[in-house]
Amino acid sequence: MSVALDCCSEAAMKKIIIIVGAVLVLLGGAGAGVYFLKPDLLPEGIRPLDAAQDQHGKKKVSEAKRDPEVGADLDVFVVNLGGPSSRQFLRTTLSLGVKDEHDKEQVKEFSGPIRHAVIMYLTEQKVDDLLDPAGKNKLREALNKQINAAIGTKLVSNVYFKEFLIQ
Questions:
Q1: 121-126: long-range contacts at Cβ-Cβ below 8 A with a sequence spacing of 24 or more?
Q2: How far apart are CA 135 and CA 129, in angstroms?
Q3: Can you state the angle between helices 101-109 and 111-122, rounded to 10 degrees?
Q4: Is there a single domain that holds both residue 153 and residue 83?
Q5: Nearest residue to 77 (alpha-carbon basis) of 89, 56, 92, 67
Q6: Residue 129, number of CB atoms within 10 A of its CB
Q7: Does the first or last residue of the chain, that is N or C, have fewer Cβ atoms within 10 Å of its Cβ?
Q8: How many domains does the structure of the chain reveal?
Q9: In the prediction, which pLDDT does 75 show?
Q10: C-alpha dihedral over 18, 22, 28, 31, to 10 degrees?
């Protein structure tokens, strides 16, 4: 008699496993359907990138519009890096983001003070700080402040690295 119960319980267990598996497959399919077909029903943190479209299929415009920038390229900088007995060099090329062509011409006029401020600031930097991407971003922000302070006005809105080599 116990053999018959074991046989029935195995069959019942198989049915339960099949039912649970089918329910999981259905829930997964429903989740995938919502994710791909109705992403606006999902919380913003887990929406796919294409869900940035409104109901009419148009891309949503970013609320924080950026003003267009003009790039004012500077010549190459090659400096010794700071630190005790440092024998390492930094070679970098910068592009300064300014509002328009008039500001780009002003950058050319202020090239002497700008180059001096950049060189003096770069020679204070340590190699370990510049190898990290966060260190490079801090350097960009600091150079932006140094350049604007050197020319006495908020002419430069961004500093971009076009080349960055430590040797």
A1: 121/146, 122/77, 122/79, 122/81, 122/90, 122/92, 123/79, 123/80, 123/81, 123/82, 124/82, 125/81, 125/82, 125/90, 126/81, 126/82, 126/83, 126/86
A2: 5
A3: 70
A4: yes
A5: 92
A6: 15
A7: N
A8: 2
A9: 93
A10: -150
- Residue where the block lists tokens 């690295």: 161
Q: Which residue has the higher pLDDT, 1 or 17?
A: 17
Query: And the tokens for 58?
Result: 């148009």
Judge if 112 and 162 occupy the same domain: yes
Same domain, 75 and 156: yes
Based on the fold, state whether residues 74 and 154 are members of the same structural domain.
yes
- Residue found under tokens 């961004």: 158
Which of 82, 99, 98, 81 lies closest to 90 in space, CA to CA?
81
For residue 146, give the nearest of 137, 136, 156, 134 by alpha carbon.
156
111-124 b/e (C-beta count within 10 Å ≥ 16 → b)? eeebbebbeebbee
Range of the domain at 42: 2-52
Question: What is the spatial distance between Cα 89 and Cα 79, in angstroms, rounded to a whole number?
Answer: 6
To the nearest 10°, report the CA torsion of 6, 12, 16, 22.
Answer: 130
What is the per-residue pLDDT for 58?
A: 52
- What CATH number did the domain enclosing 82 receive? 3.30.479.30
Residue whose structure tokens are 């402040």: 145
